Structure formats: C-alpha cells, structure tokens
C-alpha cells in the first residue's frame, strides 16, 4: 500500500466516527480507535482526562421550518425569540474588523457587539447567517467564557433569506450545561530514554464529519510521527476540546513537565484542496524548513516573540511558553466547519503523500 493510500484510508476511518464534537459518542470512538491503533504499533498510550461544561441546546419554531443551531454557550435555560436582530456575519468581517488576522477573534468581537446593540434596542435574540464560501452553514467555535446569556441562532443563507422577512415570528429554545469529562491521548515511542521528546500534536475534535479539518491532520500526524520516531523519542499528543478554546491542549500542557526538544503542531485542513495555509516557525533552521513548506504552497513566517501565544495559531498557542523550536501549520477553505467537509471533496492520496513527505523533512530540520 502506498503512503498516500494509507493516509487516505486513515482519513476516511476518522470521518466514519462523525460527528466529532468533544464528549460525544463519535469523539469517544476516535479516542478508542487511536488508542488501539497505536498500541498495535507498540506505542505506549496514556489517556489524559479533563473536565469541562458540556452544552446542549435546541430550538423550534411552531410556524416555520428553520434549520440551524444554537451558538454553544450563548444562552442557558428556556425562552422565546420573537423580536430578533438579523445579521450576515460575513458583512461584519468584511467591514470594520478587517485589520485582525484571527477569524475566531473577529467572530467573537462581532458577536459581542451585536449582542450589546440588540439588548440596547430591546431585541430578544440574534439570527446569524454564518456560512462558508460554499454557502453551507458554518459552525462557530465557542466556550463558556462568552458570558452572553443571549440566544444566538446560526443559519445558512437559504434559511436566513427565508425567515428574515417573516411576521408572527417565534422560536422557542432550551439550553443547559452539564459537567462532563473527555480525554487527550499521549502516545510515546521512547527509542532514546535519556533524551527529551519530540512532540507532535494535532487536535481530534471538531464540527460535523471534519474529514479535512481534523481527519487529515490526524492521518498526517500518525505517519509523520512514524517517520520522526526513527530518529527521536516522540510524544504524540492528540488534543481534545479544540472547539472549547483549546481546553484539552491547555489542560495537557499545564501538567506536562517535560521540556520538549521541539514541537510540531498540525492544525486544520492540511493536505486539503484549494486551501489557504499559515505556517509559523521558530527554529535556527528556519530557511530549510521554509523551503520544504514552499513546495506545498505554504508561506512560512517567523514569530517576533516566540513565547507569546498571540504569535501562534490553534493548539500551538498552548505550547509557546515552552520556548523550544516549534512549527505550526494550519489552513482554511470553503468546507471549513461545514457538513460538506467530507473526504472525497477535500483531499486525495497524492496530496496527502506530498504533505507527509514535506512535513517530515521540515520536522527533522527543527532540531
């Protein structure tokens, strides 16, 4: 079996456990699958448990058929929306917040401002058209720190246009949180017991099928780790709770007492078609690493302050304070955070093969 086909099969396997929300049945199946997969390869596997507040929310209109989702943690309890504000999220991103490079920060800023304005206007809810460029409903990462206590419903373009001019508008909602527990995975291949480990990390939770967003990263992490383990002791960390403000990764790193020799962070949408990538690298071998990643269409930058979380993306933020050589790669595309993110649409064996080989070379150059 070729490397690309092996990787592709891993992506489809990951997708098969969908949906992949933290703490859900699919998420647990992924943990079980990776644990068994790695143990079969003689890796030592440890589950790192953490607790969090699990959100459940639902809504219903007695009058209209509305397809969408409550923004997690936006509101608790029961209530009705009868006088909402309607807003197209992309309009806000393209106007007054274009100076920020962090999409999640943009969304959070816009939502907080919208809620304040809606409350001052006497409105009782917010209907957001949140779509990708493919016009599918695009989920938004959110966590308990929002502290909004205001119902927010995400809908796609068709639903937004359908309901925004309706009269006798009424939506009932119900939402709650319960204390829950999930796990990160630490898999160790310790070929040189006295040396510091080379950390390779990628998240495992996300929205819907997330074959490209997460599955490709998981597949690449497994196969790059196999290559790096020929030369270094490896700590392979599958972080959970990504959509909860990187809850799992922060929990793991806080308790991680080792000093890694280097960290490789594999973020969203790697080896995806038609994707805009971000590469950030702190290493004495920056040029060699940058040249390797250029082959993949990734323009790599060096952080001004490598120990500042603000210089990094995704779970690499959690590792910044370790002050070691680090490479973080992530991307976004039209299928990001949508139900359309399925394996045949986003990747191919040939693309996965190229990414695994180039990232392996770049990783070796980190130290």
Question: What does this entry look like structurally?
Answer:
There is one protein chain. This protein is of the alpha/beta class. 33% of the residues lie in helices and 25% in strands. It is built from 11 helices and 13 strands. β8 (198-203), α6 (211-228) and β9 form a beta-alpha-beta unit. The longest helix is centred in the N-terminal third of the chain and has 18 residues, at 103-120. The two termini are 31 Å apart.
Characteristic key phrases:
367 residues, nine-stranded mixed β-sheet, four-stranded mixed β-sheet, 33% helix
Protein topology:
Blueprint (H helix, E strand, L loop, with lengths): L2 H13 L9 H16 L3 E18 L6 E3 L6 E5 L2 E5 H6 L8 H18 L4 E5 L22 E4 L1 H7 L7 E19 L8 E6 L7 H18 L5 E6 L7 H9 L6 E5 L9 E7 L3 H9 L5 E2 L14 H4 L6 E7 L10 H4 L2 H16 L3
Helix pairs in contact: 1-6, 1-11, 6-11, 8-11
- Report, as a whole number of angstroms, the end-to-end distance: 31 Å
Backbone structural class: alpha/beta
Helix content: 25-40%
- The percentage of residues in β strands lies in 25-35%
- Give the biggest sheet: 9 strands, mixed
If you compute it from the alpha carbons, what radius of gyration comes out, rounded to the nearest whole angstrom?
21 Å
Q: What is the tally of beta strands?
A: 13
Could you list the spans in which at least 5 consecutive residues all have pLDDT below 50? Answer: 92-101
């Amino acid at each position: 079996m070729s490397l690309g086909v092996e990787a592709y099969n891993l992506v489809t396997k990951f997708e098969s456990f969908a949906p992949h929300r933290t703490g859900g049945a699919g998420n647990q199946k992924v943990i079980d699958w990776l644990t068994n997969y790695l143990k079969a390869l003689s890796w030592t596997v440890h589950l790192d448990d953490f607790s969090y507040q699990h959100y459940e929310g639902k809504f219903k209109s007695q009058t209209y058929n509305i397809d969408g989702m409550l923004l997690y943690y936006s509101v608790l309890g029961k209530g009705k929306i009868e006088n909402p504000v309607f807003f197209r999220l992309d309009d806000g991103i393209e106007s007054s917040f274009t100076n920020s490079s962090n999409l999640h920060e943009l969304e959070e800023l816009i939502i907080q401002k919208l809620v304040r304005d809606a409350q001052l206007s006497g409105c009782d809810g917010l209907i957001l058209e949140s779509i990708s460029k493919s016009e599918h409903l695009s989920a938004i990462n959110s966590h308990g720190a929002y502290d909004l206590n205001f119902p927010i419903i995400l809908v796609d373009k068709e639903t937004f246009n359908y309901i925004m001019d309706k009269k006798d508008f009424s939506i009932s909602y119900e939402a709650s949180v319960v204390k829950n527990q999930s796990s990160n995975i630490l898999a160790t291949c310790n070929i040189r017991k006295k040396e510091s480990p080379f950390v390779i990390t990628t998240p495992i939770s996300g929205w819907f099928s997330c074959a490209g967003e997460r599955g490709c990263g998981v597949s690449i992490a497994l196969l790059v780790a196999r290559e790096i383990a020929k030369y270094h002791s490896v700590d392979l960390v599958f972080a959970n709770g990504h959509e909860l403000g990187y809850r799992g990764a922060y929990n793991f790193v806080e308790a991680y007492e080792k000093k890694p020799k280097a960290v490789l962070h594999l973020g969203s949408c790697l080896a995806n078609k038609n994707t805009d990538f971000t590469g950030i690298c702190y290493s004495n071998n920056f040029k060699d690493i940058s040249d390797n990643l250029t082959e993949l269409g990734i323009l790599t930058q060096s952080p001004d302050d490598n120990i500042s979380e603000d210089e990094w993306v995704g779970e690499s933020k959690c590792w910044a304070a370790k002050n070691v050589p680090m490479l973080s790669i992530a991307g976004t595309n039209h299928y990001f955070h949508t139900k359309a993110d399925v394996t045949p649409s986003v990747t191919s064996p040939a693309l996965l093969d190229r990414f695994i080989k180039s990232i392996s070379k770049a990783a070796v150059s980190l130290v």
